[in-house]
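User: For a reading group we're discussing how well predicted structures match intuition. Take Glycosyltransferase. Before you show the prediction, I'll give you the sequence so everyone sees exactly what went in.
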Amino acid sequence: MLTPRSGQPTPLITCILPAYNEADNLKEMVPLLCEILPKLSDRFEVLVVDDGSRDATEATVLALSERYPVSLLSLSRNFGKEAAMSAGLDYAEGDVVIIMDSDMQHPVEMLEVFYQRWLEGYDMIYGVRADRSDEGMVKRKLTRAFYHMLSKSADVEIQPDAGDFRMMDAKVVRALRSLSERKRMMKGLFAWVGFRSIGVPFKVNPRFSGETSFGIRRLSSLALTGITAFSSAPLRIWMFIGASVSLLAMSYAVIVVLSTLILGTDVPGWPTLVAGIGFLGGVQLLSVGVLGEYVARIFSEVKGRPVYLISDYRRPVQVEPKDDE
Ligand code: UDP
Ligand code: MG
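Assistant: Thanks. Here is the predicted 3D structure of Glycosyltransferase, as structure tokens, for the group to look at:
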């Protein structure tokens, strides 16, 4: 079949695996990947980004690299998944680059479907979670509310059920590298760069071993980054709230004046005064808080610190898998 990509030399596929304490998972994941990837292309490499793991992740990858084409990029400490993915993208040399979790939650079989799409000419192919029944009700509702708000206010459309499980063309990777943002929500940046994209539904597997490192704190911090990075709606909302409160206050003033003129009321109403001051104080503190989020973001961008630091980069001498495998 003639496809937009036919006639090109065999593409090099780089599969980035961000890993934080994933020794046990990588032992399963890497061999599995090295079974699937040769079906797509003769030239492939796995790039494990060790995000400051405290377990045997590094030793495991080095042991694996004796049998499989695995490179190891070690960050100097734990910088978080967004930074680890950015590091992987900066070092990935592939014509086709894959990002997936190292905990087996993203099914490797999907890569064949993704690759087919790439051959058809799509530049970015992302996995869309077919169902979220594995998550708790509260998390599901909060996620839905977050994406609803983001889609209403952001300048780009961020797919609610898409994740970081993706395959992309080298030109998308180059585009992503050109973004100098420090505090990143990759999912937003993937959407922001554009290109011919398509979502493919898949079912998330349970984690093979260990526990998720995305608790409520990390998730809410990521959500805040997403909102402040892609929308200025929260700032605008306060303008409207401010205007409405002022209007209310003015109407109340008119009522007070009129009632004094007509009914000749004396000066009661200190409870109203206390309630009014309290309410306004709350509103002001909240709005300063929202402003603060944006100022903090400016501050972290202005400092200009790198997104991650590399402590080690090791590539295997032998890049092809052994024949007996
Ligand atoms: N991860 C990482 N750095 C971190 C936290 C997580 O590189 O600080 C990696 C982790 O090893 C895994 C992926 O990001 O490959 C997804 O993490 P996790 O499974 O904890 O999150 P969840 O699947 O619950 O979203
Ligand atoms: Mg996971």
